[in-house]
């Protein structure tokens, strides 16, 4: 049987503009690249099939992303990101534990497994506090709690939709008063390739909620925090969110994303993130063949 698998796989749920940019950038390096939908994975994993050199995991569903990364790892494929990095990036609770345990500056955070623990955690951390689902993006479910009354309002709305409490645990986090923006740093391999401010009137500065993007220089502090994160998760492709405390100027890691979107922001700041990533893949493939 003819080997059908390309050198580089791009596992996806659907081709967003980001993945289209990435496919073109990888092709431009001369590497063969193949898009793999979840249902295509069976064929890729078939015995006798050529094992690809690398796979970039871009599935939208967390489950599908970890699933693809784990199965590919078991046939010897290096994935970007690794299954274990994806697992941590998909869970803000795991991130809080990892950062606290390794001295990475991060807002104080508590796990809460029921409503009473939410009340207690917010009381301990002080008002306002931030509540967030452990898994989620685009600012969904990220809620500011001003006092016990707002905890009751959140709990009331939540309970009616989730009587069995399946959405626990959640994270209760210290609220950081920021200077109207947070920072997103895109890391390729170990290297921060671009940083930008996300500014909005909403306290949640997700670009999906309308925040504007302005490129900034990558400071030493930003570089240092990103290196700490990459040291813990392994080299890969990450969107690292940083937040500065307006009062103390302290810079902290807010979260790290394993499937950062870049098409919209690249069009604004002009740094070709897809080309950086494709260049990194080419380097990895070259080193692999040298061995
Ligand atoms: N502890 C916090 N203090 C201040 N602002 C926060 C805090 N946590 C989140 N935010 C704001 O809300 C946004 C969304 O929160 P985040 O934890 O990044 O969740 P998501 O994964 O949905 O992006 C952040 O970009 C930031 O602007
Ligand atoms: Mg975020």
Question: Could you walk me through the main structural features you see in this protein, from its secondary elements to its overall organization?
Answer:
It is a single chain. This protein has 291 residues and is α+β, with helices and mostly antiparallel strands. Helices cover 38% and strands 25% of the residues. It folds into three domains: 8-88 and 280-290, Rossmann fold; 108-174, ATP-grasp fold, A domain (Dna Ligase, domain 1, 2-Layer Sandwich), CATH 3.30.1490; 177-257, ATP-grasp fold, B domain (D-amino Acid Aminotransferase, Chain A, domain 1, 2-Layer Sandwich). It has a five-stranded antiparallel β-sheet with strand order 11-10-9-12-13, with helices on both faces. The protein has a four-stranded parallel β-sheet with strand order 2-1-3-4, with helices on both faces. The mean pLDDT is 95. The protein starts with 7 loop residues before the first strand and ends with a helix. β3 (54-58), α3 (62-74) and β4 (78-80) form a beta-alpha-beta unit. It is built from ten helices and 13 strands. The structure holds adenosine-5'-diphosphate and magnesium ion. The site of adenosine-5'-diphosphate has 22 residues, from β6, β8 and β13.
């Amino acid at each position: 049987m003819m080997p059908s698998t390309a050198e580089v796989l791009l596992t996806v749920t659907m081709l967003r503009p980001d993945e289209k940019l990435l496919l073109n950038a990888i092709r431009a390096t001369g590497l063969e690249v193949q898009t793999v939908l979840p249902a295509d994975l069976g064929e890729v994993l078939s015995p006798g099939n050529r094992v690809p050199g690398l796979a970039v995991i871009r599935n939208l569903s967390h489950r599908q992303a970890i699933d693809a990364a784990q199965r590919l790892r078991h046939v010897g494929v290096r994935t970007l990101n690794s299954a274990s990095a994806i697992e941590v990036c998909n869970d803000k609770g795991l991130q809080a534990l990892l950062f606290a345990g390794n001295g990475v500056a991060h807002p104080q955070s508590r796990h809460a497994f029921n409503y009473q623990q939410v009340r207690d955690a917010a009381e301990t951390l002080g008002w306002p506090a931030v509540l967030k689902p452990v898994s989620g993006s685009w600012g969904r479910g990220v809620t500011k709690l001003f006092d016990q009354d707002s905890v009751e309002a959140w709990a009331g709305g939540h309970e009616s939709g989730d009587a069995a409490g399946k959405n626990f645990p959640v994270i209760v986090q210290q609220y950081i008063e920021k200077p109207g923006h947070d920072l997103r740093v895109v890391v390729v391999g170990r290297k921060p390739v671009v940083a930008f401010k996300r500014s909005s009137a909403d306290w949640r500065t997700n670009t999906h909620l309308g925040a504007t993007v302005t490129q900034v220089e990558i400071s030493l502090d930003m570089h240092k925090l990103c290196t700490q994160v990459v040291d813990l998760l392994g080299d890969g492709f990450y969107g690292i969110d940083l937040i500065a405390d307006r009062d103390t100027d302290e810079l902290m890691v807010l979260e790290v994303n394993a499937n950062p979107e870049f098409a919209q922001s690249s069009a604004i700041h002009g740094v070709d993130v897809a080309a950086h990533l494709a260049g990194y893949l080419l380097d990895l493939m070259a080193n692999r063949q040298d061995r």
